[in-house]
Design brief:
This protein has 14 helices and two strands, in the order H-H-H-H-H-H-H-E-E-H-H-H-H-H-H-H. By secondary structure, the protein is mostly helical.
């Protein structure tokens, strides 16, 4: 008695070495489209274009000292643009970031000088205040459900008024007293506002901190669970909460990171100039947000990188100083910024549509 096994289904095998049948679901997109999908590609190309333009229009930019000055200008924007960018990826933004920098510097200066303390006590107190302001913004956001625009606009107005009123009340002036002769000043200055020599060119320490913070932020976004949380809450916080993402912690911690950035730049300003003008900082928050937007971060959240704002800040520094080196009217600076911002938004829109097109 013989048994017959069922016939195996016919399978068409492509010739060896021949092309595999295309499958639209698994087909890998061309390298160019995959590169365009990266949020920092557009601003990188823009930064290169701006650099080349000013290298031609302002020959003095080619000098080492000029480039060091440009990098310094970019670093003071870029350090704050990094936490602002992370916050925007998380779906929020902070209008109080500019005046929070001055609040931090005023706290450290007045506390140290008026109480004759070591300046490091003022530095630590300023960190507590800055992180506290960020925590307050985040807590108000998650507890009230109000847009971050309204909450941080309120904080902006509060800090602006407090900066002016308290400084006048304590010092009798709109600026703080000179703290350069106080204990701990030189050590703090070495950390926050020193310079070092490279080939005869003085480079500010903030440039190094800027690159270190950018590398750290990139690692956090791309290699840690917290980075996944940031993208998740920025994309859809309800869906993120449904899969176990701690939305409240993530939102509040992002605002606190902005506070840390404000503290660092505030300390740099204080130890660079020894004193602080209480009315400064207004308008800087728009520069930080614009650097993040130019760097590929969307106002709607869920998209962006830490590298993009680095190039965005570099473009700001290049335009700011390039106009001066070219001998043009510096009043054109804001006009250039507006053109750059609109151009970045249009480029990001085109890149997004091109990268997602099948």
């Amino acid at each position: 008695m013989s048994t017959s096994s069922p016939a195996a289904p016919a399978v068409s095998t492509p010739p060896a070495g021949g092309p595999r049948p295309a499958d639209g679901r698994t087909r890998q997109r061309p390298l160019a489209l995959r590169l365009l999908a990266r949020p920092e590609i557009g601003v990188f190309l823009g930064a290169v274009a701006v650099l080349v333009f000013f290298l031609i229009a302002a020959p003095s930019v080619r000098q080492g000292g000029s480039m060091a000055t440009i990098l310094y200008q970019a670093s003071t924007i870029g350090i704050m643009a990094l936490p602002v960018a992370l916050l925007m990826i998380g779906g929020e933004f902070d209008l109080s970031a500019g005046v929070a920098v001055i609040t931090s510097a005023l706290t450290a200066s007045m506390l140290s000088y008026q109480l004759t303390l070591n300046v490091w006590m003022g530095v630590i107190a300023a960190l507590v205040v800055s992180v506290g302001v960020g925590a307050f913004n985040g807590w108000m956001l998650v507890k009230t459900g109000l847009p971050s625009f309204l909450i941080t606009l309120g904080t902006f107005l509060i800090l602006q008024g407090v900066n002016l009123a308290v400084t006048k009340w304590v010092t009798g002036n709109v600026a703080t007293d000179d703290i350069s002769n106080m204990d701990g000043f030189e050590q703090a200055r070495a950390l926050f506002a020193s310079s070092f020599d490279i080939g005869g060119v003085q480079v500010k320490i903030t440039v190094v901190w800027w690159l270190v913070f950018a590398a750290l932020a990139t690692w956090v976004l791309l290699r840690t669970k917290y980075g996944n949380w940031v993208f998740a809450v920025g994309g859809n916080k309800e869906s993120a909460r449904a899969v176990g993402v701690p939305v409240t912690f993530t939102k509040i911690s992002l605002f606190m990171l902005v506070g840390v950035g404000a503290w660092f730049i505030g300390m740099h300003n204080l130890f660079s100039f020894n004193t602080v003008q209480s009315g400064e900082g207004v308008g800087q928050e728009l520069i930080y947000i614009a650097a993040a937007v130019i760097g590929g971060c969307l106002l709607t959240g869920g998209h962006g990188s830490a590298i993009g704002p680095v190039f965005g800040a570099f473009m700001f520094g290049m335009v700011n100083q390039g106009i001066v080196y070219a001998g043009w009217n510096p009043d054109w600076f804001k006009a250039f910024l507006g053109v750059m911002l609109l151009g970045a938004v249009l480029i990001n829109l085109w890149v997004s549509r091109t990268a997602t097109r099948r």
